[in-house]
Design a protein that fits this description.
CATH superfamily of the largest domain: Aminohydrolase, N-terminal nucleophile (Ntn) domain
CATH architecture of the largest domain: 4-Layer Sandwich
Shape: globular
Order of helices and strands: EHEEHEEHEEHEEEHHHEEEEHE
Structural class: alpha+beta
Strand content: 25-35%
CATH topology of the largest domain: Glutamine Phosphoribosylpyrophosphate, subunit 1, domain 1
CATH class of the largest domain: Alpha Beta
Number of domains: 2
Distance between the termini: 29 Å
């Protein structure tokens, strides 16, 4: 079933981490297995922030040796940053297996990302000037507390609660998805794409890489590819409604924008609230009311509709 939510403020940064925690916790019943956040702080064009993991939770239950392996993987990541000429200015362990790097780098981000992910079990969750993508097992409160997200200050964010129906319950299969290797592009999605493999192979022939078999990642890569080829975000999203088959509602975020798209059958729910100051949208109204407790008017976007808002 799964649940998705997003919020964007038009008047500057606020406690978006706490807001997204409340919105996603209200959708726990739609997906208790894992929760993911894509949060956007104030962009710093002079540096990057990267979130990555070096193991899955399940690995850490295998005994003492895995803890030594995790340390070795982190040491390799650190050495490869240096080898590629990336200067790490700040490094934090959110958990034993999840890290956050601030760094400066003037080279090819794809080469750096591929070099880091060549280390065993390393998976980059996001890279950007403002984007920080966090996902893990458990409901929104569990994940938010684990990664100290309630104090995150930013302009907008999107998130996902997952009920695993096909793939494993692990971080790799959790949403949102970052569009490797593009800065600041993330997607959450509720639905199914029926032309996933054909569309994926077409993007792979262009040189794009996929880190999972999840159709949500396809949307992220599709949007980033269209924007890389010159489309504005809204134009890329309109193309996606025409070219991606299936039933879907998705949210996409960039460094300064939040977008929503529904397929032409509009089978997957989305509720929207908009004011002069902010826009909030989610799979169910209860999620919006978690951060807007006073009386509000909401509405459902139409079939095939695409909407984009700027922070």
């Amino acid at each position: 079933m799964c649940g998705i939510a997003g919020i964007i403020h038009r008047t500057g940064a606020t406690s978006v981490g706490g807001e997204m925690t409340a919105m996603l916790q209200a959708l726990k019943h739609r997906g208790p297995d894992s929760t993911g956040f894509a949060l956007y702080g104030t962009p710093d064009q002079q540096s990057f922030v990267m979130r990555l993991k070096v193991a899955e939770q399940e690995e850490l239950r295998k005994g003492f040796r895995i803890h030594e392996q995790v340390k070795e993987r982190i040491e390799l990541v650190d050495s490869r940053f240096a080898e590629m000429g990336a200067k790490v200015t700040k490094k934090e362990n959110a958990t034993e297996y999840a890290l956050r790097y601030h760094f400066t780098y003037g080279g090819d981000m794809r080469r750096l990302a591929e070099f880091l992910e060549d280390v065993e079990s390393v998976e980059i969750l996001s890279v950007g000037h403002g984007l920080e993508l966090v996902k893990d097992l458990g409901d929104a409160t569990v994940v938010s507390d684990q990664y100290s997200l309630s104090s995150f200050q930013g302009t907008h964010g999107i998130g996902h609660t997952r009920m695993a129906t096909e793939s494993d319950v692990d971080i790799r299969s959790a949403h949102p998805y970052w569009a490797f290797p593009y800065n600041d592009v993330s997607v959450v999605h509720n639905g199914q794409l029926t032309n996933y493999w054909n569309s994926r192979r077409a993007l792979e022939r262009k040189g794009h890489q996929f880190k999972s078999n999840c159709d949500s990642e396809l949307i992220a890569v599709y949007i980033a590819n269209r924007m890389d080829e010159g489309d504005e975000l809204e134009e890329a999203m309109h193309r996606s409604v025409d070219e991606l088959d299936g039933v879907f509602t998705y949210l996409v975020a960039t460094s300064d924008s939040l977008g929503m798209a529904k397929d032409v059958m509009a089978a997957k729910p989305m509720v929207l609230y908009e004011s002069d100051d902010l826009v909030a949208l989610a799979s169910e109204e209860v999620s919006i009311r978690a951060v807007m407790p006073h009386e509000i008017d909401t509405y459902d976007p139409y079939e095939g509709e695409v909407m984009v808002w700027k922070s």
